[in-house]
UniProtKB/TrEMBL annotation:
<dbReference type="Pfam" id="PF04198">
    <property type="entry name" value="Sugar-bind"/>
</dbReference>
<feature type="domain" description="Sugar-binding">
    <location>
        <begin position="3"/>
        <end position="34"/>
    </location>
</feature>
<dbReference type="InterPro" id="IPR007324">
    <property type="entry name" value="Sugar-bd_dom_put"/>
</dbReference>
<protein>
    <submittedName>
        <fullName>Sugar-binding domain-containing protein</fullName>
    </submittedName>
</protein>
<dbReference type="InterPro" id="IPR037171">
    <property type="entry name" value="NagB/RpiA_transferase-like"/>
</dbReference>
C-alpha cells in the first residue's frame, strides 16, 4: 500500500509493468491516472 506524494508514480509504474490486475483507489487518484494516460497518449499521437 502506498500513500502520499509517491502514490500516483508508484501505481503508474506497477500498471506499466503488469504487476496489477485489480486496483482499488480513491476518485482523485483514479482521475489523475486517467489524465496522465490521456496526456501521454496525446503526446505520442502528436509526436509521430
Amino acid at each position: 500500500m502506498v500513500e502520499g506524494f509517491y502514490k500516483l508514480e508508484s501505481i503508474e509504474a506497477a500498471l506499466k509493468v503488469g504487476y496489477l490486475n485489480v486496483l482499488i483507489t480513491d476518485d482523485r487518484t483514479a482521475q489523475a491516472l486517467i489524465d496522465t494516460y490521456v496526456e501521454e497518449r496525446n503526446f505520442r499521437l502528436h509526436r509521430d
